[in-house]
Amino acid sequence: MNSRRTLLAAVVALAAALRLSGIGWDGWHHQHPDARVRVMVAARLAQPHSLGEALDPARTPANPNNRGHQFYVYGVLPPQVTAAVATLVGARSYGGLLAVGRVLAVLVDLVALALRIARAARLGGDTAALLAGALYATCALPIQQSRFGTCDVWGVAAVLGYGRGFCVGRG
User: Fold this and answer.
1) Whose CA is closest to 120, among 153, 167, 156, 165?
2) CB atoms within 10 A of CB 89
3) What is the DSSP string of the chain?
4) Which region, left, alpha or beta, applies to residue 63 given φ > 0 means left and ψ of -120 to 50 means alpha?
5) What digits encode the pLDDT tens for the residues 17-54?
6) Which tens digits make up the pLDDT trace of 72-129?
7) pLDDT (0 to 100) of residue 171
8) Residue 65 CA: distances (Å) to CA of 15, 55, 61
9) Listed range (1-10, 14-23, 133-142) with the worst mean pLDDT
């Protein structure tokens, strides 16, 4: 049991290292177009001033459609969380939003990894969990998407989190 946890911790550490090692791959010059759009959206979002404003999609300043981005199709959670965290850590600049967005994408992808490991453990046991974790940790696409800071990893984590409910009680 202890060696299993050690191996799983090593897989998660490897995943984090691979995702963080190239996080500034473009010299922080906003080379990825999807990440650039997410940063531009996050820079324009604001917090609602009242509950009524927050619940009205036509008025809320947290809706990209109300902030000059009528064709923003990636979902509002990633830029909203990016803007909120960047504000909390004092990095609400254009470059700061990019860095915060990329770090958040890495963290969200590590959550996706943990959900994948948990699902594999329930369905196939310890060996399946370790194999699934190792494969996802070293898979090129999630590493690349984490480094880009795009919204794709948020979607993967959401699907895995939702799907986790289908595996409860198995194995």
Assistant:
1) 167
2) 12
3) -HHHHHHHHHHHHHHHHHHHHTTTTTTTS--SHHHHHHHHHHHH----SSHHHHH-TTT-TTSGGGGT-TT--S-SHHHHHHHHHHHHTT--SHHHHHHHHHHHHHHHHHHHHHHHHHHHHHHH-HHHHHHHHHHHHH-HHHHHHHHHT-SHHHHHHHHHHHHHGGGTT--
4) beta
5) 999 998 999 999 888 888 888 899 999 998 899 999 99
6) 888 889 999 999 999 999 999 999 999 999 999 999 999 999 999 999 999 999 999 9
7) 45
8) 35, 14, 9
9) 1-10
Q: The tokens 């595996």 sit on which residue?
A: 167
| CA gap 102, 126 in Å, rounded | 31
Q: Would you state the structure tokens that stand for residue 155, as one six-digit string?
A: 């979607």
C-alpha to C-alpha distance for 170 and 123, rounded to whole angstroms: 6
